[in-house]
Amino acid sequence: MGRTVYAEEYLLSYLMSLMRPDGYTIGLILGQSTAQKDYVVHLARTPPPAAKDVIEETLISSTTSIHSDTTPKYIKTINDIPDTWVADHAKHVTRMLPGGMWVLGIFVIGPGDSFNDNNSVLRLKSVVTTIRKNLGSNKYLYGNNDKENLILNFNSITQKFICKSLDIDTAGMLKPAEWKFQAKATKWHQLETCIGFDRLFVIPLDKNPDTLKKQLQDILKSISETVNSALIVIEGEHRSPDDAVEAIGRRKKDRREMKSNDSNSIDKTLHASLYVPCPKIPSSNVSLVSCSASMRLVGQLVSRTFVHQKASIEEATTALKQDIMRSLASRLEMHWDSLIEEENGSPEENVTLHEPPRRVLVALPQSKVTLSDYLFPGEGPQEALVSLQELLDLEVQESSVQKELELQADPSEFYEDNEGETAPMDRAKDPTENNQLDLYVIALSLAFLALVAAVLLHQLY
Amino acid sequence: MAPKLKISSSVIQRLGKLKNPSTCRLYGVIFDDSLLVLSFSLDVSNTYNSRIFQLSLPAEIYLCGVLIVDGEEEDIYKAFKDVDVTDNPLLLKYSTKITECNIETFFYIHQKLEIASFEILSEYDIWQKFTYIRLEANLSLNSQRWNILETIEEARKNIAAGKAGFYLPKGNVYLLGEDAVDTGNSELLNLSINYEGIGHSKHDVKTPPRVVDAFSVSMYLKVSKDRLSDEGVKYAPVIQHVKREFDCLEFQVKIDALAFVRRDILTTTLYSTLVESACRNLRLLERAVQHELSVHKMDSFKIPDIVHFRPQNIGHLLTFIFPTNEETALEFRRTLHDFLALPRNQPYFRNGNIVKFQGDMRKNEPLINPHESVPSPGIVDAKVALVDGLYAYYHYMQDNFDDNGWGCAYRSLQTIISWFRLQGYTEKSVPTHNTIQKCLVDIGDKPYDFIGSKQWIGSMEVGFVLETLLGITIKINRVSVGEEMASLGPMLESHFATQGTPIMIGGGVLAHTILGVAYNETTGDIKFLILDPHYTGVEILPTILSKGWCGWKTKDFWKKDAFYNLCLPQRPVSRI
């Protein structure tokens, strides 16, 4: 039996709006996939490569940039689909998807049935393969699901659509899939959590300095190990992985005689907590590491994920973990991509604050599912609107950008003192540290000032 | 209403050993509407007091009152102020001058002392009602510069603030917060007694097992924030990159904390108990680290280990972290001996005394004190004297070493040496057959080719090895014919009462270990508690007991016409 794909009804009219008489439009299918079913939350047209706007620079990869000058504004035949361009689009869009949602595949709108033509089929398969390859390049993006990919062909003449699924593992065999447009294809469970990071990563003195990118990748690796080892508890209830998300909160209600106004529980946000195990060790130990530098990851990461109505606890927790890692990986990737040159040049002591972009959430129209965008310091919600427009073909109001979940850090807090927050006042009797002395001096001066003030006051009154 | 008062029989026994007027502190656990007094300490030191000592107690055991020995209660009201756990502290007055009714108890209720009656619970009764929970976890921390103390303190505060979660494999229970009551799993834990693991059959044995059957708990730390909580920073993750050479201290902090809980404790109560146990552990650690920091250079600084003890009659486990400096550690042990009114001539807090947990026992590790599960000897009006403390049962074929037919005396010797280890008199490992043979060659008792041979050894050799390897003096008692064994009652009784060590008996025939004696002075009826090293099976207590490898034997056990040599190891004095 083939896969069944449920898509929100309003997406059909979106497809119709993309029809053109003389060419093809390609785009991405976004949503969640399960063993047998896929739930499509959004379809996003891949923007035409030649468009001149801000997004172009970041979207375009060096290999396609030369090519892009000659590419027309629309695609004449299936064979003209620029696969690396679409793959790059897929990567940008993946960053915006909550964990547990993926680029499920591609859609093609044009005058013809691509599946009837061998060359077209080969081309479409190759586009999907290129997307998968590109998404696999940063594993913490969790860009590829382990299910099949979808290819939807929408014939602009007959207005018929055919969907097939492509299993990369079985030598690229195409299987028929049933595509259904439906209102409220699934009810989504919304899960939320907020991770408070505060971890110090040190760079040992005897280690050759890595590039910043490598250092950030090491941080990602370490955080990933932590996140993946974590126990996730939803609404304070520990449950078996096979239990349904729907069951959460039921036990509570059974006992409390189910309040009548509490029935619409599916619309409620489920709060998840992450617990990291602290496995026992044979004995305590201490090691002294001489370091050349330190990197302190600090701040809060807000995660919001959605799982389909019948999802299991395991699906939910996997989605959540992937969301945290995808979000962190996206920011760091965007950050190192944005740096013009490595800043390893200056050997003298200094403090650098790396401010990766922060996450904002935007709800899809007619759905509670939110997608993310990332704003660099200084950017505002209007920047989010631009990328939503370009990458997701979405027109949204500035007011629907939820931008207060994660705030922008105040850099001065990190620069004000080289010791700063990371090294609170030292109480140990270490003669090599003279900070303590400084503080005594300050304390004494303050005491002296207070005394002077007291004397003055006394004399005045 | 006044709580019901229960006192552990171990407290009564310890009271009996007090000689001088003193003011003491009482420790106990409160459950239902009762207070159960488990132990007491003496006020002996200005630097070590009941507040610090409380950190060494399993969670749920608290300072609960004052004990006055032969004295006036002048400053008890001040002392009562230290009691946090109840509004009704206990006053226990004990008199060494009289023997009857020498204990008076009062609860302090509404500014008045009210006489309370009490019930004595045996250690066995207590063990049936309560159990230990052992939380073992690890905190991976690092600190820039030397603020290791602050780092540990912060970890403790996080745990105290509800950041910890716990998992109890028994029953597959997660404890994730005090409000766990809302999530529906507030059922009874029922940490019932696991008779199988400890080899107790349900009926005949009335002592708690020597190997502690604690329930293990693991820990989690929450990295997500609570809904609506204001904690921590609100800004998106940033990375502060500081390029400066510095020393970073990376450390793994071991948590090994105990709680003393009712076997039918509710899961909801257990959460805060476990938090308290972890916090006591970390506070203990902070004190230890503070001390180490004050005496060590940073590059030689170590975090000392957490260790648990259960000195005889103390009534509960104790958790300590000893200074790494041996002199200071000795000083601390002396303080503890005085503080707990333990004799100074016997070690209680050395490595060998560290308590054994069922969960830490290796597979096929020699059993500890199998004789404690042996039914009584069945002699009317018998005087009974047994081995004191702990030993491990060594016998043929252990450690995959085939000594069947020749190694019985070696095994008996190993059992004896294990006694000296477990009593803390030595830290030398139990010697192998080869080490024993080498020792006898070294002292010139045997020719060189003795090493690696399968030759027997006798009581004399056992004595030589004990003297040589452990520096222990021994007495040899010669019995020319087996019949004479029946007359050894008083001698053996005196040995076990004063020395308390296992005896090796050999001679013309097979070697055995004697662990006790029971005899009736008038009828002359006598039985010997024998531990037989000729057992070749695996460490299964019920088999060992039912087949008589450890049990009471009549005088017919000895061959009438054979001669015997008894090797009686003497307990060393004053090595605490």
Strand ordering within the main sheet of chain B? 7-6-5-4-2-3-1-8
The average pLDDT of chain B is: 88
Rg calc of chain B: 27 Å
The separation of the N and C termini of chain B measures 45 Å
Mean pLDDT of chain A: 81
Q: Specify the helix fraction band of chain B.
A: 10-25%
**Order of H and E elements of chain A:** EHEEHHHEHEEEEHEHEEHEEEHEHH
Oligomer: heterodimer
Subcellular location (chain A): Membrane
Keywords (chain A): Membrane, Transmembrane, Transmembrane helix
Pfam family, one (chain A): ODR4-like
GO cellular component, one term (chain A): endomembrane system
Give your account of this protein's structure.
The complex is a heterodimer of chains A (461) and B (576). Chain A is built from 11 helices and 15 strands. Mean pLDDT of chain A is 81; it is low at 51-71, 253-266 and 418-457. Helices cover 32% and strands 28% of the residues of chain A. In chain A, strand 2 and strand 3 (37-45) form a beta hairpin. By secondary structure, chain A is an alpha/beta fold. In chain A, helix 4 (83-96) crosses helix 5 and helix 6 packs antiparallel against helix 8. Chain A has 2 domains: 4-182, Cytidine Deaminase, domain 2; 188-279 and 289-340 and 352-415, no CATH class. Chain B has 3 domains: 4-121, Cytidine Deaminase, domain 2 (3-Layer(aba) Sandwich), CATH 3.40.140.10; 127-224 and 246-353, no CATH class; 370-569, Alpha-Beta Complex (Cathepsin B, Chain A), CATH 3.90.70. Chain B has 576 residues and is an alpha+beta fold. Chain B has 13 helices and 22 strands. Helices cover 24% and strands 27% of the residues of chain B. Mean pLDDT of chain B is 88; it is low at 181-185 and 196-203. Strand 11 of chain A pairs antiparallel with strand 13 of chain B, so a sheet runs across the interface. Chain B: Residues 383-567 form the UFSP1/2/DUB catalytic domain. Chain B: InterPro entries: UFSP1/2_DUB_cat, UFSP2-like_2nd, UFSP2_MPN_N.
